[in-house]
Design brief:
It contains twelve helices and no strands. The chain has 207 residues and is mainly α. 29% of the residues are buried.
Length: 207
């Protein structure tokens, strides 16, 4: 098999599949990926190994092959990033998942929120959680779920001036008069106990 002969590689895979040699084929493809010089062919081999491992439920083998695609072929390969994200979520491998998600050069709002929640929860880094919530809020300021999460994580950090300021936006966006009153009460409590400004708490009720 010549290093760049992908057509012959596909023929070899077909023959092995028909002959019931899938396990031997996976091992052979992985070994070949370690010695071929051609980067495109190495990528083709590793993707084949990864997908074959996924098909038989070998998540560790699949993750290993996809990781090699990123390391040895293209560190922005969309297929590898998506596959590893899914594998790491299933395995609750949170640090590895965060590393993969942060490789996205143009993260969506949803990805920003996921990163914020990962940092807030299993990773336990409130500073990074705030950073990603802020970016998500700036990108979608009218999303109340994002704003609520932003307020909550800042409250966990006891960043009361920021919490107080964000709550003003939340009051304006309240879904009902009942919700507005509830947020006014929470903001007044922050002013009194968090900021130590009871006068500000009283003033808040007049807004």
């Amino acid at each position: 098999l010549a290093p760049d002969d992908i057509t012959r590689l596909e023929a070899l895979e077909s023959v092995a599949e028909r002959g019931g040699l899938s396990d031997r084929l996976r091992s052979a493809l992985e070994e070949m990926a370690s010695v071929v010089i051609s980067v495109p062919l190495r990528g083709r081999l590793l993707v084949s190994v990864a997908r074959r491992n996924e098909a038989i439920g070998d998540t560790e083998g699949a993750a290993r092959a996809w990781s090699r695609v990123l390391k040895e072929v293209d560190n922005r390969d969309a297929r590898a990033l998506m596959a590893l994200g899914s594998l790491y979520r299933q395995g609750e491998q949170w640090p590895e998942l965060v590393e993969i998600l942060r490789r996205d050069a143009t993260p969506t709002i949803e990805l920003m929120v996921e990163l914020a929640e990962l940092y807030r929860g299993p990773i336990g880094d409130l500073g990074e959680a705030v950073r990603w919530y802020r970016k998500a809020h700036e990108g979608r300021p009218d999303d109340l779920d994002i704003l609520d999460g932003f307020i909550e994580v800042e409250a966990e950090r006891e960043a009361w001036p920021t919490v107080y300021a964000l709550m003003a936006s939340r009051i304006v966006a309240a879904e009902s008069e009942e919700a507005r009153i509830a947020w006014l009460a929470r903001r007044a409590q922050v002013a009194e106990t968090g900021l130590g400004q009871p006068a500000e708490a009283i003033q808040g009720w007049s807004e």
